[in-house]
Amino acid sequence: MASSAHKTRLVAGIPVIDTPLVQSALDFARTHNDAMSFNHVHRSWVFGSLLASKLPEFAQTDLEVHAVSAILHDLAWDHKSIFSTPDKRFEVDGANAARDFLKRQASHFNDRQRQLVWDSIALHTTPSLARHKELEVALCNMGISADFAGYEFPGGLISREEYRAVVGELPHLGFKEEFKKLMCGLCVHKPDTTYDNYVRDFGERFVEGYSMQGKTSVDRLMKELV
């Protein structure tokens, strides 16, 4: 069981950490995300908490760091967000917004905890890196991935009953199509931030006029070497 000296409460029958900071993060996310996005980040936190309870390697996870990271991880995935900038990936904008939130709300966090939140959010779409970072970073990525994979999450760690209970309490609200719209919106309005990551796949498949011509890593590196 992941370690925590804090009290807990149940969400869909799953124990989650319950602190003033976590409640503040939930309020902040609810204010700055639409209902679909808020339910997604909330589910991601709950699924991460469930995974942490089942995997012994996460016994020493800082569950408050994980909670804040998961809850605030998508503050800027909508290009219209007040936290969105024209030149940064949405993950970085979200990580910066969370760091500013912590400066105001988490005086008890040390520099390492604040950095773990930033890293968790900045790397949450990059499992090939996140899974090899600190426990909190890896767990944040895993919980988010579980919200997409559901009971097909590797290892049989999330049962159909557990998944359905979480989605029943925190419904999808058109998650699949709304997620697609958000990613396509980034490709239309912030294309330069999408060429080196998975968002480009949405642009190439769904956005008319989006092109990777001259934008790949090979293109850039060969140009710089001339």
From TrEMBL:
It comes from the Eukaryota. This is HD domain-containing protein. It comes from Penicillium argentinense.
